[in-house]
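Homework help board

Subject: predicted structure for assignment chain

Our instructor gave us this sequence and asked us to write out the predicted structure in token form, then describe one feature. I got the tokens but I'm not sure how to describe them. Can anyone check?
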Amino acid sequence: MSSPYGSWPSPFSAASVAASAPRIDGARFVGSEIWWGESVPSEGGRVTVRSSSGAVILPAPWSARSRVHEYGGGAWTADADGTLYFVDAGDQRVYRLSPGAGPVPLTPAGPSHGGLRLQQGRLLAVREDLRGAAQIRGIVEIPTDGSAAADDAAIRAFTQGDAFVAHPALSPDGSRIAWVAWDGARMPWESATLVISEIDEADDEGAEGEAGPWVATRAALQPEWVSDTELLYADDPTGRWQLQRLSLVPGTRDGAPEAITSSDADTGYGLWVLGNRWYQPLADGRIVAVRTNGRDDVVEIAADGSTRTLDVPCDGHVSVDDVSGSRVLLSGSSSTSAPGVWCVDLDSGETITVAGGEPVDTAWMPPATAILVDGGQGSVHAFAYAPANPEAAAPEGELPPYVVFVHGGPTAHVTGATSAAIAFYTSRGIGVLDVNYGGSTGYGRAYRDRLHGQWGIVDVDDVIAAARGLADAGLADASRIAIRGSSAGGWTVLSALVRGGTFAAGISRYGVADLRMLAEHSHGFEEHYITGLVGPLPEAEALYIERSPLTHAERIDVPVLLMQGAEDRVVPPSQSEAIRDALAANGVEHEYVVYPGEGHGFRSGTTIVNALERELAFLGRVFAFTPSL
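My token output:
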């Protein structure tokens, strides 16, 4: 069938995309079963915990979701007997859910919790209390018997203060605890320290003394004890996150770290959420680790340091969630299948799909093509998804419209994974270009550092270079390229539209429009993020004004679709409303949609459906095709 690009009939409806896009939130071996966390779009995006036996472990209306550092993570864990420990999205208290019983609170109301970890029968967590003028954070141990539900003093704090903390790890004998910490003046991927503290079991007051030693690290991640005196962690002193080993001298607090891996890839990622794990040590001395260079590889590292790459489906944002004997649980995305959870036996080589992971039909979802284009500060990485539909073709000579996707963060990255949301466009004859602009992770520190002080410059240069490179290669209709992004990606959308000359339309989901407004309303975790991306206030106020899309809104002369969550605390509605008002004053075609109950990221199935359908209808109007809904 011959039909113009954009109007091809597609089996990927917005409703089917919403139903096929649950977010996986960690996985655990629990007795003879495997449990995993999974969002339920049809239930408002709540996060449940499911079992490989088919059981729903966490029933509605409970939802396991943390708000520590605003982005949360690590909102549940479980013991071998089937007791679930979870952070409830509503009140941020930790609950215990034993088999055959209802949820029982373990912490008092008030503070938020996340990064839950159960080790040696002891429940560790990251706690954040923002109720007073001071922001108090710490690593804590929560009694599992419920004795602290109404008594905060019963919770043992290993450290507390205004520093940010993550990744608690208890030594096998329980005598030491390690974590990573950063002071908030810099982001954790810029500077984070490994901390090791002795545990004084005679201390019945709950809090520990001065933590130490503070091991000299650059951007430490995920400490894991392999013995009472040996600790593994990731760090990037050479510009790539590599695994390190710290051997403590018995009876002392001294030790020297040594790198145990060396590769042109990262075992680590921006520490946005608390639940990600990039490696796991096995009891026999082997290590399973993720290595990222654009896409992910999963490798087995033998005790002698030799490595082999595992043949696994997942190759994007992979988390090594748990190990049991020679079995490893992996969750993440894939370039050949849907996101999922997989159980891999290192000895037999068997890989079992536990959840999701359905193979994709390449006739409808072609693999992403990694492309490299020249940008203002070097090569720019991106993944291109060409239009694909086995039942339709465009008239001869017609070039396809494209949408350039811009990820948020901006310290994040995309991996070329399959996505029903991308197939929603490509199956209709609209190409997608997913750009890892300078500042993205996955390509080492030097690539990340391109954005230092240059937000609104480098990212915009790079998305423009990527779009023009696609058009210059004759793969896209240069007059029909739109740009779409969320959060920091929305900022790049608006900034690129201000620049003009490349994009014929823009779609901004909860995008940043005014840097001063962002700085004024920024939450604690990102309070100083913008300082590194642009400059300090008040010294750089003129730069904040000059860089902000709102300052130059009169330069936007193409249609814009703005979408916003009403409850967004990271980029509040006032940002989108300000750009909406400027576009209205300048007579620019625009549409503004507010979704009640949504925060920073759309989770409800109803919202996801509406947003996709609005985007498609918007592109149809702008690019003069009749889309098939």
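Reply (TA_rk): Your tokens look well-formed. For the description, you could write something like this. The first strand starts at residue 24 and ends at 30. That's the kind of observation they're looking for.
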